[in-house]
Amino acid sequence: MYARYQQSRPSSQFLDEIPLRNISTSEAELLSLMSAAFRLWADDTFQSRNEAIEIFGQVAAAARSVSEELMTDALLMMAKAQLRQADFANALNTLSELPAELDDPIKGYKAAWAIGEANLRLNDLPGAIDALQRSVDIILNFPAGLSDKASRDLVDIRILLAESFLASWQIEQAEAQIDLAAETSGDEYRLTGRLHDVMGFLAIRRSDLPGLTLAEQRQHLSEAIDIMLAGRIYSQESADPIPMAAFENNLGFVYDRLGEYRRALIHYRNILDTVDPGEHPLVYRFAYSNLGRLYQVTADYDRSESYYRQSITFSESSSGTISTTRCALGATLRMKGDIDRALAEQNLCLRQAEATDNTRATILARYELAESLLMKGDQEAAWLNVQWAWQQGASDISPALRARVMRLYAWLSQLRGNQEQASFIINEALVQQNEEQARLDMADKIENLAMAMNIGLVQGDMALAEQHGLLAIDLVETQYEQFESERLGPSWGSRTHRIYVQLAEAYIRQHLATGDQQALGKAFAITERSRAASLRQQFSRYQQSDRSAEPVGNVGDNSISQEAAKAQIDAISRIANEFASKNMTASIDSADISLPINYYHHQDVLSLHRLHGVSSIPLPQAMPLAQIQSRLRPEQAALYYLTTDSDNFVFTVTSDALSVAKLPDSLPAGLVDTLRQQLADPNSLPYNSLAQLSRHLLGGINELPGKTDLLIVPHGAFHAVPFAALALPDEPGYTPLISRFSVQTLPSLTAYLMEKSLNSSNAQVDIAVFADPLFDANELTQQLAALESLDVTGLRGWSDSLQRLPNTAFEAAKLTELFGEDRTQLFTGQRASRSNLAREDVRNAKVLHIATHGYFNAANEDNVGLGFSVIDEFGNPDTGFVTLPELFSYRFNNELVVVSGCDTAMGRQLGGEGMMGLARGFMVQGAKHVISTLWPVSDRASADFMAIFYRHLHQTGNVADALKSAQLDMQQNPNYRDPFYWAAYTLTSVSPDPSLTF
After folding, report:
1. What residues contact residue 201 under an 8 Å CB cut-off, 6+ apart?
2. 423 domain residue, yes or no
3. What is the span of the domain harbouring residue 61?
4. Could you tell me which residues come within 8 angstroms of residue 153 by beta carbon, excluding any fewer than 6 positions away?
5. Of the chain's two ends, which shows fewer C-beta atoms within 10 Å, N or C?
6. Residue at a domain's end among 250, 267, 284
7. Stated pTM of the model
8. Do 529 and 473 form a contact (C-beta atoms < 8 A)?
9. How far apart are CA 920 and CA 898, in angstroms?
10. Other C-beta atoms lying within 10 Å of the C-beta of residue 963
């Protein structure tokens, strides 16, 4: 009783009157062991519960020859403990050791109750209903005086029975059990909370009944939300984290169904902040699985994979079914492009589904295998699998799975030449989509329309393709308000980008074939809509916030969550630092090293704190061509690249003209990567590669008379191209592009030209400089070394293994001399710390200059960062690793940020969103211009380059011109002529005003 009611509200309990009797020594010893097990059980930790299970098992085994009653008690408690640990299969095995007939009706109903719960969790619904009904019947037939003792248990059992009926779609029977449970539940918070849980499930089931209108479906789902929000309050009052987490999970599920991914994520993330995964693995099994699915939908595939794998781990520990989770993991791997690992997971899923005779899971496995086999190029094997799934059409599968099977079957029919069947099936899928609006998630609706567009394009029906493509794109853009700009907005843009690209390519080919200028305008409009959408959404958010305040969602705007958010930022920094160190020292292929689950866990909790109270903002429209042209200056020309599966194109946009050209077909595969590798080696000769790439990308550059400023909007692999170093075509020898043009890289023309609230704070200084951080704790001054309280253990990581950058200290000194001590903030050595980077005056300086090591690994693009001091100025140890999530936690009002380090322009390439790295982080958070590097730079050469650049900037006040002049000065210096020394620096801008005044 102590164990069971430890956290319950005060209520009257009953104790059996047990007559005193003589017992044997051996029985007394076993009773003592049972008492010890109960004490462990009352401690209520994962480890103590496991220890209790072990002791209960020992007692049960020993009691067989001593006392059948004691053996039964021990087995019942052992099974109950296993249920609590989510070890359902072993609980069922334990219960099977009970005597066939239990004379004691109390033990009888408890045994049937436990069997029913185990069967329910193992999805044996007939077995669950039978056992739970038997438990109810035993209680109802109790002798007078005993039924009162089991009244509360009866409510619990009826709730489980109702859940079993709902899971098997016996809605009327479920309603009857809910009504009976409600009559006797009383006012105990725990029971009332559980009743609301199953009532919410009932409302969800009602929304799935056939024949309902969309309004009726949504009404039932809204009712489910109201019920569960009320139930969550009761669970909070009962102070039990498990039902609280269950309500969060269920609320997330309903919002997910409604397509409100933002709210769904908030509730799923609440679970991560509510219970300990080590203590409650079953809760996390469902939470991680749901997070894995949502991150798959939104194309955050690394995070999706991590959560799915952890869900499988929890499932294996609970002996639960994991086949469908393996299929889902395989889908994530396929979407990442990792086909071999995807097929391995999907084949495991298929074997497990067939072994358990689970038709739904088998259909899912066959469908997923077909998708992966098609991507691998095995069209015939893909056809056989999807055909099998298609032939099971009468099976009771979810609308989402049915839509996916139909979509793939239609596409494979098209590829096999059966156009009539392909058109019929995809049209039928669209009809069903209209009928099942609330049962089909937004991603599947979009994919159905996209497939209809593709089939229209293949069949040459441009009008039909355009109709479906534009509808799909409209749906894509309605979803941006569900996401934030750090990860999910860009990821969503990456997932859906191909729809824009396919439609834009169709318009371009129509224009090139017929000269149709309207098609050209449509092609550019669709392309511009696809670029940096989450960035323009973030700029729109700043427009709607107080111009003098930190934008909502940043650390510091909510005093309640500030400390909690800071803890998450520090945890992310520590994990990222350790991960980077592991990558540097790994003897295996770094592609096999993945960020651990706790990295994403902390990132999700951080997002939860940052989004507290933040309202969603719709995606603002992209600028129309006429408005873009009206804001371009006469000397500017934009080269707007578009890469497709088959060809590359470039739009040329000026203040009075728009054209598009197909780029030559002669670009060798991997040339961009080859060029970057050559440029990163001062001993290589990159000029042939530069000439090849220049002929491909700059063929029409001579047709821009009078233009001096180039605005480059790259796409795909072209984000890694050092455009400044490309050779001007038809010029003798090697003449770099910057000899004629200043060059700026843009995320999109809308992001560059739109009005935005940037740099709203008054700068107190001209420049804040971070240089020569302390990377080795052993280099502390004598004063700090003497501090007994200093603990430098546990600091080993990437930042701790770096070499000092002494030339950056000279670089900083020159900048102080140039700008003046009164207009310069200098942070070197221990003062070059993460905490000082977060200072408000630093983030409001006109120029923020950071000279340090940058971290980027192409095999693990999720982790980018900067190295800062591992000991701050007060002697406090720190990881010294500034991550992208940390940058997204503060507003940077700097007009220019210069990140002088290794690979600081690199990051994850996400379709139309562009390069998600450090430069993007600073721009999203308010910086106008960012100068960063495309490859590792020389410490000494970088110091000389920056001295030249800032001298020009101080003289001209123009960022683009100063960068161009500095690069030309270096290129003309015999010691630094090689592009290795000067071409790594790239200027990315989100403001058309390049001027700075000092």
Report:
1. 163, 166, 224, 250
2. no
3. 33-267
4. 109, 110, 113, 139
5. N
6. 267
7. 0.83
8. yes
9. 13
10. 27
